[in-house]
Here is the input.
Amino acid sequence: FKGNRPTIFSPLDGQVCADHDRSSGEGIQPQEYTLIKMRVLEPAPEKLAPFVAEGKAVYLVAATLRPETMYGQTNCFVLPTGKYGAFEMKGGDIFVCSDRSARNMSFQNMTAVDKEVKKLCTVTGQELLGCPLKAPNARYERVYLLPLLTISMGKGTGVVTSVPSDAPDDYAALRDLKNKPLLRERFGITEEMVLPYEVVEIIDIPGYGSRSAEKVCKDLGIKSQNDKDKLAEAKDLVYTKGFYEGRMLVGSQTGQKVCDAK
Ligand code: ANZ
Here is the structure.
């Protein structure tokens, strides 16, 4: 799936097109993401329940640049104030994602009718919170949809899968939800959706170990998911080193370097 970085704003975003065909954003190529289909389990949120009851496969679709980290998923995130939709896709699947990403997908042969978006309902992130999901390759049988306040609705699908072992943003946000009962209460999140979920060790990075996000958050004194500058620094520190020097600890590519396993 070709999505877009938030800086690009063009009706052609995400289409497979020559760079000079863009009405704006020339020189910026579309970002290619892997979409992770996280199936909605029961009890489904009210707005999605009718589709699930009909036997339809309904998925929250998360856009990731790190498909090799899916073994470490502990939850999924949406923006509580974000506007999402349920869209009919090719083959009858229903995808829950931002309007913008659904439009992009319609130009990539993914919707029921090519170049058309069929929206079945509109739903806010808040209305989806607490939804149980099946995350592919994850160790946990069921994970939950939790709030992340720093999601940009203009990037990817607006749905983010969470890997707190390797993504500092995810580690900080999950830790906020674990340590702050009032934050959970504000979003209707229960203890069972958060407390049992521990970091899963999936990649070893020399000098950072197998919980690189936790280590870098502690080293830099990151206090919460809103510590934007420090989180950006944390990502710079672990991502490049992890890519070239990290080794997979799990899955079919165990022992391989991340850059080869990917
Ligand atoms: C799982 C994962 C594991 C990720 C991991 C990163 C590290 P950049 O490079 O900044 O573009 N993401 C995706 N959509 C997002 C959105 N709308 N708002 C905020 N974050 C979003 O980062 C790409 C990564 O940012 C994606 O890859 C996703 O988290 C997150 F160890 O997926 B990643």
The CA atoms of residues 35 and 63 lie 5 Å apart.
